[in-house]
Specification:
The chain is mainly α. The protein has helices at residues 2-11, 14-49, 51-54, 57-80. Helix 1 packs antiparallel against helix 2. The longest helix has 36 residues, at 14-49.
Length: 81
């Protein structure tokens, strides 16, 4: 929509042309802000989707289980003393 409006807006001269150019630039700036926010959200979602490639859940699950087991063994050892 903005691509079709641009040539028409810049052909208008005078005060009404200035107002239309100003309104067009406001729309364009709003569109640019929204597109930058959309790109930022896309990058965040892409990072979340690629998170499993960087993190191995089995590794952390094994560490958690071993930590719990060693805690239980330590508590058992302290109680038996």
């Amino acid at each position: 929509m903005l691509e079709n409006e641009r040539p028409h807006v810049f052909l208008i001269k005078g005060f009404s042309g200035w107002r239309k150019r100003r309104a067009f630039n406001r729309k364009l700036r709003n569109f640019e802000c929204k597109s930058l926010l959309a790109e930022k959200e896309y990058r965040i979602l892409e990072k979340e989707a690629d998170f499993y490639k960087k993190v191995e859940p089995l590794k952390y699950t094994c560490r958690l289980i071993l930590g719990v087991l060693f805690t239980l063994f330590t508590l058992n050892w302290i109680v038996t003393m």
